[in-house]
Amino acid sequence: MKTPKTGTPIEELRQKILMQKKLFGEVVSFSTHLKNADNEREGKMISYQIEILKTGLRKSVNDVVDVLGRIYLFKPLKKGVDEFDIENIRVPEEITKNIAQNLQIDKQKVSGVAQSLQAEKKKSKPDSLEKLTLSRLKKKKEKVLKVKERKPRRYVKMASRFFHNYSTNLINKGKFQALSRDLIKANMDFVPAAYVSVIFFTAALSIFAAFLIMIFFLFFNVVALPPFIVQMQEGFAIRFLKVFWLLFAIPATTFAFCYYYPSMERKSIENRINQELPFAVVHMSAISSSMIEPSKIFNIIVLTREYPALEKEFIKIQNEINVYGYDLVTALRNRSFNSPSKKLSELFNGLATTINSGGNLPEFFEKRSQSLLFEHRLEKEKQGKASETFMDIYISAVIAAPMILMLVLMMMRISGIGISLSTGMISFIMILAVSLINILFLAFLKLKQPGEV
């Protein structure tokens, strides 16, 4: 393909398109700076520059249209062609006979080749492996992922109907800022106004539940002996003074649990990320040594499917680059601000600084992996010592204490001092106490023990 000479319409078109591309890139760059403008004056200056660039872009488009009107994809016919009499053209008979003979010979050759191909097709039959492959290709259909539209749950819709305006006013006044940050870091599918509405709605429902529980304990009591629920014999006023606190304790506990639940969820995600991070950074160090483009490192880590907690954070970085159009450094800064893990936030900040300053990425990942692995070993040693302490407490609370309590109850029964319980009731109380203590210990260890990598 020959290069068009300078001054031709095609060369002029190429220059115009390059100019458009340059103007469009400057518009995108100024738009990014406009979002990060420090003050209103700087924003106005950037907006004015963007308008100038847009005007030049429109003019360039008009110039391209004019150049396209001067480009022809075919060469015009010479004058006098219309006067040429095509009907009077006569082909000699010898030429027509030769053409007919050649066509007949070619037809015979084609039929012979077709017959030979048909015979070879009948002789060569596909083997079992080829048949299996062909059958799989026929059965294979294109899979279309259907993403269902997420609709708000009925409970959330009902809570927003009653408390949305009140919650929005509180958030606009600066309330629940820590809760809003925890909702983002915990990857919970709630906007702050909706979740605050759920908190108030749940607390309001708990008031009715607390009132019913208070009424129940006002007239009845729960005892350890059958029939377990007996009618109260105390005076109404004395009993009311004993149980009225339930009307305040239950709603307060419900409100506190709903308020602190996002922070607990964020803490759980942070523990899982911290467990996976040292090994993921070692993996990233090995990938970066091949001098691959930095943003591709996160894509490779996601495709491995070995780090489920980190996978969500790395997908967010890819979305900010591919969907929102941010550069890698800006995406890393944003994810550092919204990361649930402090260690991961420090990794993103360090990586952004290294890329921005032109540092050595393999060296950065190697040093960071060494420090993270050292901290991981220290954490494992702490967990081992804590497990030894819990074992001592478990032996004391679950083995020694129930035996001593059972001996005390048996001595009280034999001597007739204090509460006299039957042997079956003492055994039932011991089994129930040991079961509850075991459940509490298992729940506590589950909360303290991070997920395995």
Task: Outline the fold blueprint.
Elements: H1 9-35, H2 40-68, H3 93-123, H4 128-139, H5 154-172, H6 177-185, H7 192-219, E1 220-222, E2 229-231, H8 236-243, H9 246-288, H10 294-304, H11 308-322, H12 328-337, H13 342-357, H14 361-415, H15 423-448
Antiparallel strand pairs: 1-2
Helix pairs in contact: 1-2, 5-7, 6-9, 7-8, 7-9, 9-10, 9-14, 10-11, 11-12, 12-13, 13-14, 14-15
Q: How would you sum up this structure, described in words?
A:
The chain has 453 residues and is mainly alpha-helical. It folds into four domains: 9-68; 154-261, no CATH class; 267-384; 385-453. Helices cover 75% and strands 1% of the residues. The longest helix has 55 residues, at 361-415. It starts with 8 loop residues before the first helix and ends in a 5-residue tail after the last helix. 14% of the residues are buried.
Brief description of this entry?
The chain has helices at residues 9-35, 40-68, 93-123, 128-139, 154-172, 177-185, 192-219, 236-243, 246-288, 294-304, 308-322, 328-337, 342-357, 361-415, 423-448, and strands at 220-222, 229-231.
Beta content comes to under 5%
Mean pLDDT figure = 78
Helix content range: over 70%
Strand count: 2
The DSSP helix count reads 15
Spatial extent as radius of gyration? 40 Å
Helix-and-strand structural type? mainly alpha
Strand order of the largest sheet: 1-2
Question: Could you spell the SSE succession in H and E letters?
Answer: HHHHHHHEEHHHHHHHH
**Uncertain stretches:** 1-6, 79-87, 140-147
* Main beta sheet strand tally, sense and closure: 2 strands, antiparallel
What is the overall shape? Answer: elongated
